[in-house]
Write a structure and sequence with these properties.
This protein is of the alpha/beta class and 244 residues long. It is built from nine helices and seven strands, in the order H-E-H-E-H-E-H-E-H-E-H-H-E-H-H-E. It is 30% helix and 21% strand. It has a seven-stranded mixed beta sheet with strand order 3-2-1-4-5-7-6, sandwiched between helices. Helix 5 packs across helix 7. The longest helix is centred in the last third of the chain and has 14 residues. The protein is globular, with a radius of gyration of 17 Å.
């Protein structure tokens, strides 16, 4: 198990590996598939916090996009580079638009919840957005039924992955996401809930008898009825407000 080097000591009940998020599915009802559906084909994309490049690779290959990734963790940045991606090892800085130009889409796939001040970054990337450019983000839903159930049982335990990832610093409900983007000067144009068919919790329910694809489909329908309860992630598309 590779240590992540992140400040999780005494928090997670499970080991936290640096490369724990090294796979992704383009399932239409999950966060990656939802994000992909909102990326214009052939566009120029900046993937902030691209990790190992699992999602970035799908964007490049399935959307035929010109993608640049930024990743602060050296091991994850190295894995992304090994996938043939253009990756900068470091954090987003004001020099990015000066060096790389502007982008049609800027992506934060499960990134904002890791930041002390997510609004600061949402504001900082504005000069890197092309006119009419779009911000895309997926953010874990702390109001998911599985978290509510654990809280009712008096449990708040960090884990190595998922909603309770020990490296999360911020927690968001649907209304919290709306407030975040509004405060940063964006107007949300699309708001989806990711199904979470991969979650282990469903192996303790009748849904365990369904294939992964069918389980995600059923959950997507439940998300349509009660997104704040069944959505494992908030998936949003936003643009700068006209007054910006």
């Amino acid at each position: 198990m590779v240590a992540s080097g992140e400040a999780v000591r005494g928090l997670s009940i499970e080991p936290v590996a640096a490369l724990r998020y090294d796979g992704s599915s383009a399932d239409a009802f999950e966060n990656t598939g939802l994000l992909l559906s909102m990326i214009p084909e052939g566009s120029r994309v900046l993937d902030v916090g691209c990790g190992t490049g699992a999602i970035t690779t799908l964007i490049r290959d399935l959307r035929r996009a010109d993608v640049v990734g930024i990743e602060p963790h050296p091991d994850r940045a190295r894995r992304a580079s090994e996938r043939g991606l253009n990756v900068l090892c470091g954090i987003y800085s004001d020099d990015v638009p000066k060096k790389l130009g502007t982008f049609d889409a800027i992506l934060f796939a499960d990134v904002l919840e890791h930041l002390v001040d997510p609004i600061e970054l949402l504001e900082k990337v504005k000069p890197a957005l092309s006119p009419g450019g779009i911000i895309l983000a997926s953010i874990p839903n702390v109001a998911h039924w599985s978290i509510r159930l654990r809280l009712l049982a008096g449990k708040f335990e960090y884990k190595s992955t998922g909603i309770m990832d020990a490296t999360h610093l911020r927690w968001f409900t649907r209304s919290g996401v709306e407030r975040l983007f509004d405060e940063a000067g964006y107007k949300i144009e699309a708001f989806h809930a990711a199904a979470g068919g991969w979650m282990g919790e469903y192996y303790w329910t009748p849904l365990r008898w369904l294939s992964y694809e069918k389980r995600s489909y059923v959950l997507s329908k439940l998300c349509g009825v009660a997104p704040g309860l069944f959505g494992v992630q908030h998936v949003v598309a936003a643009r700068l407000r006209a007054t910006q």
